[in-house]
Design brief:
The complex is a heterodimer of chains A (about 700) and B (about 90). Chain A is an alpha/beta fold. In chain A, about 65% of the residues lie in helices and about 5% in strands. Chain A is elongated. The mean pLDDT of chain A is about 85. Chain B has three helices and six strands. In chain B, strand 3 and strand 4 form a beta hairpin. The C terminus of chain B is likely disordered. Classes of the chains: A alpha/beta (about 700), B alpha+beta (about 90).
């Protein structure tokens, strides 16, 4: 390996809100990548930092409070420590909240691995007037505590030096001074000495740790023990120990051990820390303003409204530029490539498809910036707190509210924002009902149909009614999903409200950029594929007869001298529309429409509407453009009029269609993101049938009921 | 013998000491591991606009939890002049 940089694996571990990620960003900067931990949607951050002739590979483990594996985050962190065995573990503590942060430290030091504890936010602590005797604290724990501040850069150089030293010369960890209650220590020592007789076990894990975990009743360690012959010897001893201790402390072992850890921590802090003025006074004051009982909800809605407006209104501007860019690009390519299939594939398939993904990027950048900001300041936890009661009624967590709001703009960012939901059942439920929240692309469909079939004075009410129906249905479905599919207890709300802090711009930008990149990489590829498939379905098979028939007709008009130029253009564009609609009915999509006609007849739809719905899978606005293509053959000048003239349409059919469009499966972009986020085919299939099935049943009920009532 | 309260029965601004946590599920251990152990001093800070969840201040940080979760925590109220002092040394048995 001479000449090559030595790789050092370093794991950052600590509580949520301990500033772990800030430290990570401070050290590795933009030199990082985010991925997912195997099999879960928990993000994994990795970054590399060159240091002298070393290469530091940092992994930012999920923020956890304990190594006891209840949550997926804790399982990941624990597995990483045991299986990947990082060369150095850095335990990041929030200095302003040492009591709780040190709990994880007491668990980590029992692993007896190369280990550095950093007191992050040390500057903030000093500002608060709190004093810590760091050398004394280090002595009590038998650990090195380094005061740092990820925000100001205090102590970072020293930390890097220490990492390098520790990585190059692995010294045996200092014998820890940390101890449990004496009675527990005695039992640990006794069991430890027996366990150490098994060399294989002893070289895998520290015996003391094993003994303690067995006393706590850790199932995974029990499984480990069950594979060893030593088990016969250990088990009776263990049972006797537990019985003795439970009798002595009059409670179960796990509680006693947690208490004994806190007893040590609180004792140590009592000796080393002097409390200054009232901590968190500023946060209390801001909370009194932002989440008080009267203004809490209005302020919450105000902030959500702002996030929504920024995402969709401000995002609209660059979105327009991008759309323009793609239009120009299409024209540019159109002028180079000869007419024909290749041109159509490039322009209508690929550019339209890729463009369809890229135009969302500004919205997504703004959205993630907003979310990072709200998370970074600490407001996000409060937002969940404010609306939790309402969301809990329908079986969801307070955090589910944000995706719901975003869903009115676009389902794609709404799905992505579901990452803030920790519990898998909550996340799935929220994602499954999100399609019922009417996204902005569905609006043109409503506008067209309401405009064509309903009196003006009722248009606003009807539009509101459609939106409202979606919201109510989302709430009902969430409740049903929770009751019938995701049975069991809902996620507890126990959650820290971190003190308000000003997030650094650098952290926000890094996060935003990484997440937007993830969206592009993941959604881009699959979406491109589907865009080509839809293009293929609406263009193939091409009918030579149709081409020939219209080709000659157009030629005849072109050379007909009796028309004025204006008349000629009108005639030609009318013929082209007719050609397109006949071609569509001949294509795979058209045939599919006819194939499903019997199925959608009870909803009041004919095959043309079927085609529009199928192509609406590309994007909901396409329903409008397809309808106008098809109904162009009625010869009317506007889609509105041709729809009114059509015998297959009535106000009832229009209502049924609007409800179907509201509820059925979202566009490919959203569906792709759903699949990528859930990463499970079963759920993607369920999602397809669940949304479309709900749409079918609702439209069916509306149409049949309407017919019975004589509409 | 002082009266026992469930945490959700406190009024805003009340100080109390944790006596025990009922139940046996993961929630109980989550609370324990976050520092809500026997002998810890805490206070009820605020209630959400809709009346649930609550925010408690415990060992210098703020924890929010639903009323149904708070009902698992049994506490003993502090009152009178020794409140402040007890709060500071709340971790002592």
């Amino acid at each position: 390996m001479a000449g090559k940089d030595k790789k050092i694996k370093i794991a950052l571990i600590g509580n949520q809100n301990s500033g772990k990620t800030s430290l990570f960003n401070r050290i590795v900067g933009a030199n990082q990548k985010i991925g997912n931990w195997a099999g879960v949607t928990i993000e994994k951050y990795e970054g590399v930092k060159k240091y002298k002739n070393l290469e530091f590979h940092f992994v930012d483990l999920p923020g956890i409070y304990s190594l006891t594996p209840y949550t997926p985050e804790e399982k990941i962190a624990r597995d990483y420590l045991f299986v990947t065995k990082p060369d150095v573990i850095i335990n990041v503590l929030d200095s302003t909240n040492l009591d709780r942060n040190l709990y994880l430290t007491t668990q980590l030091l029992e692993l007896q691995r190369p280990f550095i504890v950093v007191l992050n936010m040390y500057d903030e602590l000093k500002r608060g007037g709190v004093k810590i005797d760091v050398p004394e604290l280090s002595r009590l724990f038998g650990l090195e505590f380094l005061p740092i501040s990820a925000r100001t850069g205090l102590g970072i150089d020293r930390l890097l030096v220490r990492i390098a030293e520790l990585a190059l010369q692995p010294v045996d960890p200092l014998p820890t001074k940390f101890s449990h209650y004496p009675d527990i220590e005695n039992e640990i020592k006794m069991i430890q000495s027996v366990l150490c007789q098994d060399d294989k076990l002893a070289c895998l894990y520290p015996c003391r740790w094993l003994a303690l975990r067995l006393l706590e009743g850790d199932e995974r360690v029990y499984q480990l023990l069950n594979e060893r012959p030593l088990r016969i010897k250990v088990e009776p001893l263990l049972r006797a120990s537990i019985e003795r201790l439970e009798k002595h402390f009059e409670q179960d072992m796990r509680t006693t051990i947690v208490e004994s850890r806190y007893a040590f921590i609180r004792g140590a802090l009592h000796e080393t820390m002097t409390v200054g003025k009232k901590a968190n006074a500023v946060s209390h004051f801001i909370d009194d303003l932002l989440i008080n009982r009267i203004m809490g909800l209005p302020i919450f809605f105000g902030i959500m409204w702002l996030l929504f407006q920024l995402t969709f209104s401000l995002g609209q501007v660059p979105m327009g530029w991008l759309e323009q860019c793609f239009k120009e690009l299409a024209q540019l390519i159109g002028s180079f490539v000869p007419n024909g299939l290749i041109k159509s594939l490039l322009i209508d398939g690929i550019i339209a498809g890729v463009g369809g993904v890229l135009v969302f990027v500004p919205n997504i950048l703004i959205l993630f910036m907003g979310i990072s900001f709200l998370e970074g300041t600490g407001y996000m936890a409060r937002a969940a707190f404010v609306v939790d009661k309402a969301m809990h009624r329908i079986g969801l967590h307070g955090r589910s509210f944000i995706p719901m709001i975003l869903g009115f703009g676009c389902t794609v960012p709404a799905f992505l924002s579901c990452r803030t939901l920790k519990d898998r059942a909550d996340r799935l439920t929220t994602m499954l009902v999100l399609p019922f929240i009417s996204c902005s692309a569905k609006l043109p469909v409503y506008v067209l149909l309401i405009g064509a079939f309903f009196p003006k004075h009722n248009a606003g009410n009807l539009l509101f009614g459609i939106y409202f129906f979606g919201i109510i249905l989302a709430a009902i479905m969430a409740k049903l999903l929770k009751v019938f599919i995701f049975r069991g207890v809902s996620e507890p709300f126990v959650m820290e409200l971190p003190p308000y802090r000003m997030p650094s711009l650098k952290n926000i930008l890094i996060h935003t950029w990484e997440k937007a990149g993830l969206y592009l990489r993941k959604a881009g590829t699959v979406l491109l594929f589907f865009a080509v498939v839809i293009w293929f379905m609406t263009n193939f098979p091409a009918s030579p007869q149709v081409d020939q028939k219209y080709g000659t007709k157009i030629q005849m008009i072109t050379y007909n001298r009796s028309f004025s130029e204006r008349q000629r253009d009108q005639q030609i564009s009318a013929l082209k529309n007719l050609q397109a609609s006949e071609q569509l009915s001949y294509s795979l999509a058209g045939r599919l429409g006819k194939l499903i006609e019997p199925a959608i007849k009870p909803l009041g739809f004919n095959w043309e509407i079927g085609v529009a719905l199928v192509s609406g899978f590309a994007a909901k606005e396409v329903v409008v453009s397809t309808l106008s293509t098809i109904y162009a053959q009625h010869g009317e000048d506007s889609t509105l009029n041709s729809l009114r003239q059509s015998s297959s349409f009535s106000p009832l059919v229009a209502l049924s269609l609007m409800i179907f469009v509201l509820l059925y499966v979202p566009c490919i972009a959203a569906t792709t993101v759903f699949h990528k986020e859930v990463n499970n085919w079963h759920w993607t299939w369920f999602y397809l049938f669940f949304t479309t099935g709900t749409a079918y049943l609702s439209s069916f009920a509306v149409f049949q009921l309407g017919k019975l009532l004589g509409y | 013998m002082q009266k026992l309260y469930k945490l959700n029965e406190l009024n805003i601004g009340d100080f109390a000491e944790v006596l025990s946590i009922e139940g046996s599920g993961d929630l109980r251990f989550r609370l324990l591991e976050m520092g809500v152990v026997r002998g810890t001093a805490l206070s009820l800070v605020r209630v959400a606009p809709l009346g649930d969840p609550l925010v408690i201040s415990v060992q210098g940080f703020q924890l929010s939890l639903r009323k149904e979760e708070a009902a698992l925590i049994l506490v003993k109220k502090f009152g009178g002049f020794c409140k402040q002092k007890r709060m500071r040394h709340g971790w002592k048995r």
